[in-house]
Each structure stands twice: as structure tokens, then as C-alpha cells.
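Workshop exercise sheet. Pairs work together: one partner reads the sequence aloud, the other fills in the structure field after running the prediction. Swap roles for the next sheet.
Pair: D.N. / O.F.
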Amino acid sequence: MMEANLLFMGMDVSKGYSDFLVLTSKNKPIEENYQLDDNSGGHEILTEKLADLTAKGYKVICGVENTGGYERNWVKCVKNLSRANENIEIYKLNPKAVKHQIQSLLRRTVTDGVSAEGIAMYMNNNYAVFKENWNKSTSQSNDITEDKMLYGMIQSLLKQQTMKKNQLEKIVYQVFPELLKYTKNSTPQWVYKLLEKYPSASAVKRAKIKGLTAIRNITEQKAMVLKEQAIKSVATPAGTIVELMVSQHCKDISALNMEIKSLKKVLVQSYEGKEISKEDLEILNSVSGISDWSAVGFLIEIGDYSRFESTSQLAAFFGVNPSYKQSGDGKFANKMSKQGSPRMRALLYTIANNLKNHDEYFKSLYAKYMAKGKKHRSVMGILMHKALRVLWGMLKTRTKYDAGIDRENQKRNTLATEVAVVEISIRARRHQELSFEAPISRSNSNKRKAMLEPQVSIKDKITRSSEHSLQQT
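Structure field:
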């Protein structure tokens, strides 16, 4: 298919409708943008439009942003057409990449039509390079799509539960603040049951010991302590409405907890029932501290892990890489880039925290960086980065966890970095030999001295370390 016969259709999806714009390979629109509803009538018109273009000898490349749901009906419509017509293709695109393309248009007002144009232009500029990667975006089975939908539902319920917990904590601070000492790390179920039945310090003060011990995990001794704390409490007196709110929040949290547990079980069983997914779960579960739920969440978030060519690309995709600003002689480290999925980073934080508590290798890494004076959150960011790379390496090489592999990789990468700096500098200076005649800074002068020193010993070390084939990264 000649380049001149390619057309790129940008589809900007909204709830209930979509805007369309078709560009030639020279980024010229063949007509003004138009809008169709997401119903049978709109799909029929789109079908006619695509059929008309292909009948004229064009190959139409359609693209839509991955919005997490609203695009699915349109993708299904075009995908069905593409099965019968090889001159129609449809791809889901990364919204962040498309966003930069739209911003580059420098339009004063970004309408749905402009967004459709940006999508079409992004496809035109990147089709030849990313076609294979894009192809995987619409080739998922229905099972995988359903698993992702269920995972999204569970995440939504977890957000609701967190919101409820935060609201409850603010009220409990007023009606029974002494109880909050039991909720520093996590809130045990007996606290919710206690507040559901006795939703204030005054209610606990009036309660009988027998009534308190009827709640699971509240012993007679604990009941007496709670009574004493309630009697001495500095709480603000709670009225009937406030007590009702506390009780209802506790009921909602418990109900959500039961629902989340049930749905998590369904999702894990779904993955265990598929041969390939089951093998992935076994590989991830070989790490001490990763539960079935965390493993399933990781597999869903990472998707087709074979599409990543390097750990750098992987880390940048999920935003756990450090972002750097480099200018002249200086290189200044900024914070974690935090691009990509925030859900993946939240999951990686949980995984890294569990590994820090249960795996000896990650424990030693945490202690090592803390001893260097780094703050807890900074160290956790490092562990998140490490966990992502290690788990991806395990999946890609089909090997179970071995901390020794990562230790060897660290040694090899440290030596390789020393040589890489020299090699890159030499390439950059290929038109002029290094010297000290230019009015350079002291820092750059020191770098040049280091570059001009013999590197044979370092290269020999790398050659020796590369004799072993390492699998995890």
C-alpha cells in the first residue's frame, strides 16, 4: 500500500458519542470533523463512511484513546469491519502520548474536533514505528477485558472504602479520640464492630463488660481498658445523629470489605483457571511477601510485559523512574516522574512494603539506603523501582525469584555504567579530540581527565562478568 493511499481517522470518544476527523498522509483533512452517536444509527453511518473510503482505494487507519470503557463499542464496531476488510485497521492509543501531540498543535481552544485531529496526526507520525505495539492493544481476548473490568471495579470499591475510613476517623477523633491509638497501622475489625454497636465514648462508658466482650477479639481485660478510657475520655459529647453517622460508616466499611474480599477471590480464581496466567502467578508467588491478589493486580496493570524492551522503558512507562534535569556540567536529580498509571504505583508501593518486611534482600536494600541518610519515602521509591524491574525480569525470562541474580546484575551494571560514560563521550567528541585548551569549568576538566585515563582494566572486568548469563534485572 503506497503511503499516498493511507488515511488516518482520529476518533475522540466521549460518553454517548464520538468526534471523527480523517487526515491524509500529509496531515490534510479530507473533510471537516463530524460527530456520531454511540448507537446503532451512528455505527451504521461510520460503517458506510469506512466502506466508501476503502472502495476508493484507501487504507484507513483508525485510532482511539484508551479511556477505560467509553471507546469499547466503537473499537468493536471497527474491529468487526476490519475482519472482513483488510484495508481497515483500529488501534487503542496511550492518552498521554496523544496529549503531547494535541498540545503541539498550539490551538487556542481544544475542542473535540481538535482532539480528533491530534489523534489522527499522532497515528500518522508514529504508525510505521509503533504499528506492532498498537496491534496488541486491540487483540485482547474477552476474558482479559472482563478481568480488567472486574479489577477496575475492585479498585473503585477500595477507593470508596478509603473515603469512608477517612470520614470515620475525623468523627471518631471527636467522639472517642482515645480509640485511634488502635488504628495507627491498620484498623482491626473489632474496632469497627465496637463503634457500630457503641458509636461514642459515652456509649462505651454506659456499656456493660459482657456486652463489650461479646464482640470478637475483645477480651475481658481489653473491655475494662476500653471502659476506663471512655470514662476518662476528652471526647466532645456526641448526639444521636453523630452516633448514627459513626455506626453507619462502620456498617458500610464492613460491607465493602466483604464485597471486596469476594470479588478478589473471583478474580484470583479466574487467573488460576487459565494455564498461561496460572504459570505467571506461580512465578510471582515465588517471591516472599507477594499475595495472589497483588500478583494478579501486577499482571493486569503491566499487561503484555513482552512489549517492553528494557527496564528503563518499563520504569518510565509506569513513572517510577527518577526524572533528571541536565544542563552544561550539572545534572540535577528531581522527584519520581510519576507518569503513567497511578494505580500501578500504588500497587508497587504495597508490594515494595511487603518485600521490605518479608524478603531478606529487600530488607538489606532498605537498611542500606536508610543508612545513607535517605528519607523513608525516597527509599520506598527506590524499592518500587527495584520491585518492578525484578518482577518484570522474572516474567520475561520465565524464572522464579532469585535475589542472587539481581546482586550480580548490579555489579555488572555498575561496571558497564563506568565504561558507557566514556564511550558516549568519545562518540560525542568524534569530530574533535579532547583537550584542555577550551575555557572549560573545573568540573568539565575533571571529567576530561577521567575520560583520557586508560579504561582497559574496567573493560576486562566487564568481559569477565559477562561470561555468566543473567536472567532477572
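Discussion prompt: The radius of gyration is 29 Å. What would you look at next?
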